[in-house]
Structure formats: C-alpha cells, structure tokens
Design a protein that fits this description.
With 475 residues, this protein is α/β, with parallel strands linked by helices. The chain contains 15 helices and 18 strands.
Amino acid sequence: MAQATFDPGPGLKIVVIDDDPTGSQTVHGCPLLLRWDAETLAAGLAHPSPLLFLLANTRALAPAEAADRVRQICRALRPALERAMAAGTISSWLVVSRGDSTLRGHFPLEVDVISEQLGPFDATLLVPAFLEGGRTTVDGVHLLHGQPVHESPFARDGLFAYGTSHLPDWVEEKSGGRIPAAAVQRIGWRELEAGGPGLLRHLARLERNVCVAVDGASERQLASLAAAVRSLSAAGGPTPAGDGPGEGRPRRFLFQCAAGLIQALASLPPQPLAPAALAALRRCRGGPLPGLVLVGSHVPLADRQLARLLAAPGCVGVELEVAKVQRLLEGPEPALLLASLEQAWGRRLAEVLADGHTPVLYTTRGEARCRHAGARRELGLALAGVMARLAAALAPTLGYLISKGGITTHTLLAEGLELELVDLQGQLLPGLSLVLAATDCDQDPLPVLTFPGNLGDGDTLWEAWRRMEAQAGPA
C-alpha cells in the first residue's frame, strides 16, 4: 500500500484525541487507532508519521462518559509516551483535542481532562478554523462560508446547541461562566500574518493554561501559528521578557482545534496518491466489487446530499426507519425484535446488490424527538450499531464503503468491522478521507471513505460515489 515518505528518525509526535473519526480530513499516511492498549499505542507511536490519531468517539457520549473515556486514553497514553521518549522513538510530543469545526462537542470538558492527566500546560489554544470546509475565524468571530456559525443549523444541534459565534463569549457560554469571556486571550489574524518574533513573544508569555482564541482565515495564518508553536515546544524560545528570540524553556501547549491546524502542525509532504489513485484502491475479484453507502448524519446538509445521491441512476435507497427502532428500544425484548428487523433490512440490501445497483442505507431524515438527551444518545448509538452490523455482514463482498456521519463511521470501524486501527491514505475530495481497513487476511484491505456530516455542498456525496464507481481497479 502506498505511504507518504517521512523522516524515520525520532522527532515531534502530534497525538490527536479525536472526538469522531473524521478529524484526519486534511492529512494522510498516518495510523488511526480505535484501541489504546499498550501494544497498539506502542505501534502507533513507532509509526514514521509525525501524526497519531486516537479515535475516541466522545461526541457520541454523555458528558460523564466522554470525560471517563478521555481519562482512560490519557492514562494509557502517558506511560506509552514516556517509553517512546526513553527508547528514542520520539523526542517530544504535542497533544491535540480535535473537535468539530462547527463548534459542536464537549468543550471545555475534554481539554480539562487532558490537562488534568497530561499537564500542566502553559495555554490551551482554541483554533476551530477548517478552510477546506469554509470555516474561518476573523477578529474572534467564527464563520461558516462568511456567516456567523451560530446562525447555521449546526448551532441548533439537539445536544450541543450554542448562541454566539464570538469565541470568547462561546467559551464563557460552554463553560457555564467558569471561564469568563474577559479571561480569554486572543491572537488575531494580523498578528498571525506578521508572525516572527512578535508572535513568539506572545506565545512565550502565556502561562497557567490560559485559554486563547486564535483567528484563522488562510493557510499562511495557520502555518505561522504552527511554526511558532513547533519552535517554542521543541527547543524553547524567547523568554517572556525578551526582546527577541533566545533560549528559554520549552513551552507546553494544548490544542482544541478542528482539522485545519493539524496539517500545519505536522507539515506533511504532498499526498502521494492522487484522488483517482485513491478511488482505484476499490477491491476487485475478476472485476470491480460493488459499493455500499451509509448515511447516518441527519443535519440539513446531509439531507440534501442524500436526496441528490438517491436521484442518481444506479443508486437505490434502503431506509432504516428510526421510529420503528425507537419503539423497539422503548418496549420489551428490544434486542430480539431489532434482530428480526435487521434481517429484513439485510435481505433488502442483498437484493439491491444482486440487481447490480449501489444500496444506500440511510436513517429516516430529521432529528428524532426523545424524552431526554440520554435517550437521544441511546437511540443514535442503536441506529449506528444496526448500520454497522449490516455493513459488516456485507463487507466480504464489497469493493468499497462510503460512511457519512462521525458516529456512524466510528461504530462501523470499531464495532462492525472490529478493527484496532486503520491506515489513512489521503483525501478523495477536500475533507473526505479514504482509509484502508484490513478486515480479512485473505483479501485486500477494504477502502472506507469517511464522510463528515457537515461537509461539502449538495453534490459532494454524489460526486464521491461517482468517483469510486468510475474506477475499475488498480491502475
């Protein structure tokens, strides 16, 4: 399998604790871990890529469960990092809490736990910019295609709603007032554009894990921040009172960011496989094997993308009826009755494949009404579990999978396909990562296109399917 070429010597390792499997959408050639036992962590840290992703899937969990999972990861990660440092496998490390670029997720809960377990840190840098998806931050205001993000449907999420796009005010809102807006420092776009000693001095003066909201509206701005962070983290930099770069202790920064900053921090070489070559990883057996599309995301953008795909000749929808699943979960013996429904859906998927079409398994559109947030999360996980089991049953016969939605994708990889890790190859389209899942030692790895719920325009899902279908196999 094609891999990017990295310097194999010890160096900086950027460890990303990702709240769903789609945060690697700007990078390539690195492992994504779905387990964090000592052996799996050691293998991940020994990988030549400067990046290691740990897929925590915490966005699918209640706050207490999310905190517990991040705590477990950090407690396993600390000794693994110490062993890697002692062995000379790595020379230093940064830790990133990767979250949604539309500001949905458990903030500041997850960075609080990371700080408790892996700190102390001098600052937590909040950098939600994701340029490939049209998410920028200008003068402290986070924007989606130029409009304040709190005016978008994402801000009305049933579990992670918020009422402001001004990041200091958003921090105050999400922290319940524990971190006042006035206590949030800022690094603006002009300072990032200037870069150099001034930015180094600013970062070097940060202390006591202050929260810093950082602008980001261009690759140059993100690269400027990343270069300064690498300089200060690895070998120290200007002392807080210094007038210019000089020797000082290495600074320790924690990041809450979207995917945009990760590429800049890692400073990766160009993606080795072009999109056509990624699509050509589709499995063959005397000819190209068929695909399967899963759509679990229910945001309005996903609805438009699904409608466009279902209108395409060659695609046939199979609806996973949410109301039925919800009634079964609330009744007696839900597992037994749900298994019966799964068999019916599985037969329908098999019929579509036998007819030579691409089945599109999707949940009923709209956000289900539940009694409380816990019931909403339980329903979401149950639906993702059904989709994962159905896909896994068909996996040996498939050439590729497209999975839309973070919870849907994580459940598919970790529970349906029962994987410990996957190899990230690169992006088929901006923000859409293709991973190789080794599901069977007798077969080539299965290409899985991980598709965030909030990314693209109305044609993007159709375009991704079209590209995968256009490739008959390895070139």
